[in-house]
TrEMBL record:
GO terms for molecular function: 2-amino-4-hydroxy-6-hydroxymethyldihydropteridine diphosphokinase activity; ATP binding; kinase activity. This is 2-amino-4-hydroxy-6-hydroxymethyldihydropteridine pyrophosphokinase. Pathway: Cofactor biosynthesis; tetrahydrofolate biosynthesis; 2-amino-4-hydroxy-6-hydroxymethyl-7,8-dihydropteridine diphosphate from 7,8-dihydroneopterin triphosphate: step 4/4. It comes from Chlorobaculum parvum. Catalyzes the transfer of pyrophosphate from adenosine triphosphate (ATP) to 6-hydroxymethyl-7,8-dihydropterin, an enzymatic step in folate biosynthesis pathway.
Length: 174
């Protein structure tokens, strides 16, 4: 399979949030047939769903990968497990790390386990804003650039850009 550009949203709201994000970037970059080619700034955002928890740190990672989407999803789940996220968890609950495939090239995929593009990405500033730091791809279902989706996004939250940055090619402490 030839390389595809994919975007993965990452978030954490437990413990050393920046270290968990960096750990996810490092593990993605060390994944066979995959390399990290871009990382957005880190943003602090309000939690979705249950507001009675710590704020999230969110970012988006751009990768080049020859993995198929199903295998990439499995890799993301393994990384989550390695970074302390349990296999079973309540929706909207606090988490050490969350990895979501946002886009996989221009493909649209709907299976029982995988929805690409991510079904809620166009409604969430904590995904759109960091994605725009590194790219402005066209949403393959809505056929609109991501920058246009930000203008029509109904999310009234305000992602706060942090001075802290993630790096590519670093070995994280986690």
């Amino acid at each position: 399979m030839e390389n595809v550009t994919a975007y993965i949203g990452i978030g954490s709201n437990v413990g050393d949030r920046l270290a968990y994000l960096q750990g996810a970037v490092d593990r993605l970059d060390r994944t066979e047939l995959t390399s990290v080619t871009g990382v957005s700034r880190v943003y602090m955002t309000e939690p979705f769903g249950d507001p009675d928890q710590e704020r999230y740190f969110n970012a988006v990672v751009e990768i080049e990968t020859a993995l198929d989407p199903t295998t990439l999803r499995l890799v993301c789940k393994v990384i989550e497990r390695e970074l302390g996220r349990p296999d079973e968890y309540q929706r909207w609950s606090p988490r050490t790390i969350d990895l979501d495939i946002l886009l996989y090239g221009e493909r649209c995929i709907e299976t029982e386990l995988l929805s690409i593009p991510h079904v809620e990405m166009h409604r969430r500033k904590f995904v759109i804003v960091p994605l725009l730091d590194i790219a402005n791809p066209e949403h393959p279902r809505l056929h609109r650039p991501i920058a246009d989706l930000l203008k029509s996004c109904g999310d009234d939250s305000v992602p706060i850009r942090l001075a802290k940055q993630l790096t590519i090619g670093r070995v994280s402490p986690i």
